[in-house]
Recover the amino acids of this structure.
């Protein structure tokens, strides 16, 4: 319980006790540099000399000086020398501006080299130094410190002109209302970002407001933008963005109307906070319940299995580098430097910070590590599969209650994240849609399953699951991008490309429905009575056909026929909301747009959307309108209509055939002749977790779950180590459903623990009997908690009467292995010092030697 023992966060391994606010500001202030200060350019032999000169007022705090460190001379400042005078001796000279992040890094490094005691002392010295210099600096804030950027009006004027241009396009009927809305929001988002950049460009680097935000002491870029630059777009309580932004800043003052819109956001923030706290608390309770019996129970389970991890890349930036994902984990196999054949990490050895950095420098893209997901320990997990205890930086101890730690690590940010929204007062920060890709490397373009047709703007992508990679001269793949249908590619297959060149662009707001073949358009089931309506746009004066929600036997689609109109070359189902662009009887060539659908109007991404998403994944709920995925590798063919539903056939090379019925209104992701792999979505929609498990297997499902859950937290800038999520997923994948009982004692359809299943099968096989066959099932966390071995724990969670009745009827025995059941019956919990190996330790007072006493 002692605070000085809890320096690092068990959730992500970063420092918990790290200076904040005034201390950060003080340390940041002294490590900044200023040009043309008294004493600039002077040379000093050591830090003490600098401190004497500063005391005698020979040099000022921010003066740039030269200092001898070891056998080198470095350029630094007086303030940085003062900082280094309190750091432990033996630490390399820290020569940087100290913001909050940098201070955390220094603390972590000191802990790694010097250990616990020295770190605690350093934190105290930092506190004293920070407060002292924050006081001396006398940083205060006045209205004049909030400088309005000079280019603000110019940026606003340009944005208004662009909005006007978009409005005109809409009036002429070129774009729909949804597209107009999306484009307007996008223009204002860009303008707001530009004003934010200008605000920071023009601020003096010693401006108090700037220093507070830049150091990480208080406030954020967004808040300063709202004070000096522009308040920006606001969200309605429903989460939609109001398209007229507040162009004033708080410094200039808001008009009455702007103030009214402003209150929208503030109230939503407060309401959200009240409502979401309960949800976050409930999620934590369910997580604790599902994982409460996971403890570290043995040294090494001896498994040879593990999971592969690689850096997480989104678009063209590395979001989580490989080293962050493997530090503190145990390597499964030897990791070898390909060039020198030197073993960097042996199998079964912990990967520390230095080794992780070395693995990354060697250019190794993915490695196999031990994980609790593949741990073979029956009750709990083993030390090797869990790896490092992030709170201590050492390998986890036996008896550690890692399940509870995992549940708290995932649940705690949930309560934090829900509080996050109201700080910016509902200002809409929207992820600006990416609408192009550019090369990060020089190399040659290679198409993968990509079909294109040549048009004026370039090559238009015809299919949906095509990709482009950039390869080097030897043919090694450097990077790969998936391209949406309708994107324009500027290079042919095999063309050379330079670094930084944009090679594909698309409209981020509409999804086109393109024809892949040339021919004549024929409308089918497109009639004004049932499937489409004429929309007269009052603003533009044009009418257009829009597909409406339809039921029954109707399937609006566009057929492409050959010249003689005897053969159907292609057909394109039209989803509700699609706007028809091709006319009946019109001649089209491959790559022409037949219809378009607006992509979903963007709501602000925010954890309030994220918390239900996390809960949905952990509860393994079936989403609405899920995607249909292919169960085998093969080529797509179209089958006949049956009862108004389209059939899709996937035929593999081995002759295996799978048929899928596509409900009408579902948009197809594949086309006739496309090659699909097992697990490829055939229609659009969210994926069903159970389908991924059945088709792609356990490993793929685990990977998908970890990435999806981490994605939600990452958007909010919250770090959680993968191992915590892995523990919860392990608990969700514990059960096997019996398909064939064989000679075992199981019943058909029974759900049993996979370790019990394995033991029973081994017992039967030893006697020469027939083993049972079962399939792995995925349970949501609530279901998993209720079906746990311990009925006491399950009864104390939910549905008490049902659980107790079932336990009584079945005559169940509770072996009291977890924490919860032991707390309920009043026993010492079997974790920590109550763990079996620790319980047997007795304190024996050794008899002191009486002769020694006399001596």
């Amino acid at each position: 319980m002692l605070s000085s023992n809890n320096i690092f966060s068990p959730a992500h391994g970063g420092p918990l006790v790290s200076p904040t606010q005034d201390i950060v500001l003080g340390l940041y202030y002294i490590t900044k540099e200023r040009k043309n200060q008294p004493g600039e350019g002077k040379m000093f032999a050591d830090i003490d000399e600098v401190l004497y000169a500063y005391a005698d007022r020979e040099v000022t705090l921010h003066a740039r000086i030269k200092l001898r460190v070891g056998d080198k001379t470095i350029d630094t400042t007086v303030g940085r020398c003062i900082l280094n005078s309190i750091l432990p001796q033996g630490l390399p000279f820290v020569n940087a501006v100290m913001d909050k992040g940098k201070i955390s890094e220094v603390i972590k490094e000191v802990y790694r080299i010097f250990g616990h005691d020295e770190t605690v002392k350093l934190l105290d010295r930092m506190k004293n130094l920070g407060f002292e210099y924050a006081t001396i600096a006398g940083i205060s804030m006045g209205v004049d410190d909030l400088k309005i950027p000079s280019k603000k009006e110019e940026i606003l004027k340009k944005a208004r002109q662009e909005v006007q241009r978009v409005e005109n396009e809409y009036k002429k009927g070129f774009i729909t209302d949804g597209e107009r809305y999306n484009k307007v929001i996008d223009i204002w988002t860009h303008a707001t970002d530009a004003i934010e950049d200008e605000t920071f460009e023009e601020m003096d680097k010693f401006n108090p407001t700037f220093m507070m935000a830049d150091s990480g002491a208080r406030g954020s870029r967004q808040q300063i933008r709202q004070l000096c630059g522009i308040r920006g777009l606001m969200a309605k309580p429903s989460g939609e963005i109001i398209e007229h932004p507040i162009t004033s800043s708080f410094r200039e003052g808001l008009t009455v109307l702007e103030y009214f819109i402003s209150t929208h956001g503030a109230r939503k923030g407060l309401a959200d906070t009240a409502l979401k706290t309960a949800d976050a608390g409930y999620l934590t309770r369910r997580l604790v319940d599902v994982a409460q019996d996971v403890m570290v129970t043995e040294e090494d389970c001896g498994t040879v299995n593990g999971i592969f991890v690689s850096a997480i890349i989104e678009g063209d930036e590395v979001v989580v580098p490989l080293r962050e994902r493997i530090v503190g984990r145990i390597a499964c196999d030897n990791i070898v430097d390909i060039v020198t054949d030197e073993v960097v990490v042996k199998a079964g050895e912990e990967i520390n910070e230095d080794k992780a950095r070395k693995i990354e420098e060697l250019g190794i893209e993915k490695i196999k590590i031990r994980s609790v997901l593949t741990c073979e320990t029956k009750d709990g997990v083993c030390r090797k599969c869990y790896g490092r205890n992030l709170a201590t930086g050492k390998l986890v101890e036996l008896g550690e209650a890692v399940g509870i730690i995992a549940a708290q690590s995932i649940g705690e940010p949930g309560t934090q994240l829900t509080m996050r929204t109201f700080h910016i007062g509902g200002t809409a920060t929207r992820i600006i849609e990416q609408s192009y890709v550019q090369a990060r490397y020089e190399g040659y373009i290679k198409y993968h399953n990509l079909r294109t047709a040549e048009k004026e703007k370039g090559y238009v992508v015809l299919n949906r699951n095509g990709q482009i990679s950039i390869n080097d001269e030897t043919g090694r793949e450097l990077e790969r991008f998936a391209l949406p249908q309708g994107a324009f590619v500027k290079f042919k297959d095999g063309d050379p490309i330079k670094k930084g060149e944009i090679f594909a662009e698309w409209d981020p707001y509409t999804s086109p429905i393109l024809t892949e073949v040339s021919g004549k358009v024929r409308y089918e089931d497109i009639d004004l009575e049932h499937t489409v309506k004429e929309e007269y746009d009052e603003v533009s004066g044009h009418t257009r056909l829009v597909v409406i929600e339809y039921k029954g036997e109707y399937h609006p689609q566009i057929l492409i026929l050959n010249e003689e109109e005897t053969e159907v070359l292609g057909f394109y189902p039209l989803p509700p909301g699609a706007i028809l662009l091709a006319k009946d009887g019109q001649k089209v060539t491959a790559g022409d747009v037949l219809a378009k659908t607006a992509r979903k109007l963007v709501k602000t991404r925010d954890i309030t959307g994220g918390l239900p998403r996390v809960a949905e994944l952990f509860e393994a709920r079936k989403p609405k309108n899920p995607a249909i995925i292919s169960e085998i590798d093969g080529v797509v063919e179209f089958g006949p209509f049956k009862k108004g539903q389209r059939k899709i056939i996937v035929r593999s090379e081995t002759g295996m055939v799978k048929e899928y019925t596509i409900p009408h209104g579902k948009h197809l992701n594949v086309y006739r002749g496309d090659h699909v792999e097992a697990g490829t979505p055939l229609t659009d929609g969210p994926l069903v977790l159970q389908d991924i498990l059945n088709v792609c297997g356990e490993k793929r499902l685990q990977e998908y779950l970890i990435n999806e859950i981490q994605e939600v937290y990452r958007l909010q800038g919250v770090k959680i180590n993968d191992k915590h999520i892995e523990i919860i997923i392990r608990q969700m994948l514990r059960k096997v459903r019996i398909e064939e009982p064989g000679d075992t004692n199981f019943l058909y359809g029974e759900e049993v623990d996979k370790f019990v299943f394995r033991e029973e099968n081994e017992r039967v096989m030893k006697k020469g009997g027939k083993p049972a066959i079962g399939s792995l099932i995925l349970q949501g966390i609530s279901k998993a908690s209720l079906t746990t071995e311990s009925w006491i724990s399950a009864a104390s969670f939910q549905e008490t009467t049902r659980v107790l009745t079932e336990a009584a009827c079945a005559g169940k025995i509770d072996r009291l292995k977890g924490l919860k059941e032991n707390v309920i019956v009043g026993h010492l919990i079997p974790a920590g010092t109550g763990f079996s190996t620790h319980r047997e330790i007795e304190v024996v007072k050794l008899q002191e030697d009486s002769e020694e006493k006399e001596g």
